[in-house]
Amino acid sequence: MFEVIIPAGILGGLGVVFGAALSFASRVFAVESDPREGEIIEILPGANCGGCGFAGCSNYASSVVAGNAEPNLCVPGGAEVTAKVAAVMSVEATAPERVTAFVRCSGGKRSERQYDYTGLDDCFAALNAIGGGPLTCRFGCLGLGSCTRTCPTGALSLVNGVAFVNRELCTACGQCVKHCPKRLITTVPYAATYRVGCNSHAKGAAVRKLCEAGCIACGICVKACPENAISLDDNLAVIDYAKCSHCGTCAEKCPRKVIEIERA
After folding, report:
1. 164 in a domain, yes or no?
2. Element (H, E) at 223
3. pTM of the model
4. SS3 (DSSP) at 195
5. 161 and 70 in one domain?
6. At what angle do helices 78-88 and 35-43 cross, to 10 degrees?
7. Is 194 helix (H, G, I), strand (E, B) or coil?
8. Cα–Cα distance for residue pair 153/131, rounded to 1 Å
9. Consecutive 10-residue runs of the chain (264 residues): their mean pLDDT?
10. Are 69 and 177 part of one and the same domain?
11. Domain range holding 69?
12. Which of 20, 60, 125, 211 is 20 to 30 Å from 49 by CA-CA measure?
């Protein structure tokens, strides 16, 4: 009987001693949280979208308090949130320029197809299919919605076979950018009225055969732009938004209507 009770008593006593030691250590070595962290969390929109470059709002708040992040990185919050976070930190900060995601493709149903794809409803799966997917244009949107399913705000949808971004809903979190196997999605200034809806770097003659909506690098937009804001880079028109005055001349002159005004 005592052979059982004594070991049990010893173990019980050790448990009490170790418990007390842990309790004491937790009080001695406890790290008090900065109350400013909680204040910032309350200010942030709580979307946890990752647009600031951190895992979530809480992680961003702790990084700001620790001095490892600027108070103006919350894209969804904009100027209002930036001002409030800066006030908590007793610093001055300028709100970053608002940006939005943009899909550089206008092809969709106007692009030629090699075959009818019947595999998994996933862009990555289609890209690994025969010939790199059903499109003859290797730069075009596959239109299977992998990006739409990752968008936390519902800003992405499929329109005529191409992913389309509603810039009013977009927080520029970057999730869609990461989940596009063709790297078609990028971020552009929210105020960028005119955009080049193509990402093909094929030569003009080849583009004409593959897609009705592809840039053929004719250079008409380059010559027509009064601000010299457009150039050709590897057979593709590129707009320098720092120079663009949003006059619309490029869209008017583009023979293939690749440059379009942003749809609401």
Report:
1. yes
2. helix 220-224
3. 0.76
4. strand
5. no
6. 170
7. strand
8. 33
9. 55 57 53 84 88 88 94 88 94 88 90 90 92 91 94 92 92 90 93 93 94 94 97 97 94 93 63
10. no
11. 35-88
12. 125
